[in-house]
Structure prediction request, 224 residues.
Amino acid sequence: GQQVMQIPQYQHVQEGEDFTTYCNSSTTLSNIQWYKQRPGGHPVFLIQLVKSGEVKKQKRLTFQFGEAKKNSSLHITATQTTDVGTYFCAGRNRDDKIIFGKGTRLHILP
Amino acid sequence: NAGVTQTPKFRILKIGQSMTLQCTQDMNHNYMYWYRQDPGMGLKLIYYSVGAGITDKGEVPNGYNVSRSTTEDFPLRLELAAPSQTSVYFCASRLTTGGGDGYTFGSGTRLTVV
Prediction:
């Protein structure tokens, strides 16, 4: 079946360093969403990307959707301790099914 | 608005017991979902509903049942609990499937089956 692969699974960064997580689908997606889950919390919707090549920014977070609409990335500039958590992508395929990636767990070293 | 409310927050079940996880949303969302999340893993869809009276299986429906008698409520029933059902269960809702809105998740129910 269709898969949405997310890498890396874990990432440790020093506070102030940048962080990127990547999401790759085996098939073309209609759109892709990104969520953040704090430790012990629930996923919280961050953003949705729909157009090929789309780039959106939210303060220090930059989201990109690939030209082929099969991959996406989330980049955080100058990480802060509040960025700790797991970041999930969720891709919608042509059958209108949403597939979540397994997430990237971000740890910030002070 | 309360958003998506799940009860209970924690529960310990013995093997073979049954229970119902409650989920209520006050946003008048049509779409509702049940996911389970195992430690360090992603979200797996158990069941979903596109509106009152309509439910459908997701990726891992075995051992669970749902009903959707109203727009607001989407309870998840566990029959004959097994250790493999130890997990965190999230209920989520969404207004539409094509808009720019994402899922709104509840705070989760942490279930342990012993």
